[in-house]
Amino acid sequence: MFSTRRTLRIEWGDCDPAGIVFYPRYFAMFDHSTVLLIEQALGMRKHKLYEHYDFAGYPSLGSQARFSLPTRFGDEVEIASTITKVGRSSFSLQHLLTLDGALAVEGNETRCWVVRDASRPGGLRAQPMPDEVVARFSSTAA
Question: How many domains does the chain have?
Answer without folding.
Answer: 1
